[in-house]
Structures
1.
Amino acid sequence: MKWNINKLPARTKDWILTGMFAMIICLLPLIFSSDYIIHIGCMIGINILLALGMHFVTGLAGQINMGQYGFYCIGAYAGALLTTKGGLGFVPSLIVTIAISAAFGMLVGIPALKVEGPYLSLCTIGFAESVRLVINSAGWSNKSNGIMRIPKLEIFGWTMQTKTMSYFFIFVFVLIGLIIVTNFVNSNYGRRFSAIKDDPLAASVMGVNVRKVKIMAFVLCAIFAGVAGCLYANYAGYIHPTTFVQALQTNFLLMIVLGGLGSTWGSVLGATLITVVYEYTRVYAEYQKIAFGVVMILTVLFLQRGIVGTIRYHKQQKMIRDQHAGGKNDGKEAAV
């Protein structure tokens, strides 16, 4: 009997893929022992969390968010200030950062109730730039000098002294995030998000609280970005306002579009590919933005469904052709 993963329920497939992903995470440090490769792995984990946040608001709810780097900045500075000036450990600072990020997500989600499309994207860009400019000029954030000597990642007194330890620590949060997202997508709330993305008016007629869902999308997006920022600040040990610039938003958007808009695993794949390309093209900084712009244009022209979406589409078309061919054969046999 031939086993076919495509015939399994969506929730079961997600659990299998999550298990396979966890195995790959564990094997990577054994295959590549270089600190630089492990560092790229850490950045992949942080960017996966950011992409999953974008997946909530843009991929599932269909709301254009161009201010993810603002939430990322808030999470990083909140975590850094709470650990350096507040004297909190990583876990308490992370809990407070999540609360702060959720509050800002709700604040940004309110305009989403009134505006849509390019107007919403302008609102989110304005929010993110305001965050960056305030932090760049505020005394409590050390202005453009940034924050130095941020404590390393730690939990219950156990400090992540090496990059490999930080790598596994970060990917624990990635796996938790993946489990949360996959369960959310298969829940009633996930279906409500999809309904609003397809047709907000029809969804409201069917009893979906559009206002609540839109705000929830931005809150979840902000929480994931806040966690990613907090992890980055404590992993890097130093942050400054120029780290969180608008150019990052192109990368975040490209992650979910290239991987497959609306696909959880597409966000993971897109974040992995874009992070690897970004890290290995740092030496060509003057051409990097041009290269990413070209990738975005090519994706829109030739991979409109993204990598995962294109693969799924071709599989569906193959199944339809096979069923059609099977139907014809059955008809011929019956005629004989």
Note: The mean pLDDT is 87.
2.
Amino acid sequence: MRLRKKHFAIPEMKENPYVIFDGKKNKGKWKDVFGNDNDIYLEIGAGKGTFTATSALENPNINYIMIEMETNAFIYATRKILDYNLKNVIALPMNAKDILEYFGEDEVSRIYINFCNPWPKLKHQKRRLTYPDFLEKYRIILKEGSQIYLKTDHKEFFVDSLKYFQEQRFVGLISDFNMKEEDYPLNIETEYEKKWRSENKPICLGVFEKYS
């Protein structure tokens, strides 16, 4: 379901010092923006920002960048940065297909992709955030030995994604088709995850490591 147009979203985000609309100028220099040498974790398709905000609160020594192109949802994510006084979070309103224009080689230590659009129709599958074209770009910005974490409720999308990661030479560390909360005590739930769990819908988890 599409969110109703929020005409206040972009003007409000432009007043937020942690939201960067011209992030291309910081390519390869994000540690300078944060002012430290901490690892940078990236959430692609952050939505309303619950996952990144919670992660940043629990891990103050990690720098987080959340990406989202839908400003009607992202406005709520960017508010969380201020509400929780998060000094280790930056928000980028951008399209993931342009990721190489924003991040340099080996600049990111981890990527999260949580409950993205599965694009089930064959003609739309190139839009998937795990499609090989995207994975090729992620390989460039990820450090050697870094991981991509994928969570989804869509089994067919997950099965296809496992093939994509293998084709792009990622090592599969975890491929769990029914992720039990008790097996992952450090798991941070997204809004969608809470919803699907309340309906007893299986959650798929994949963790994939970059290697040469």
Note: The longest strand covers residues 142-152.
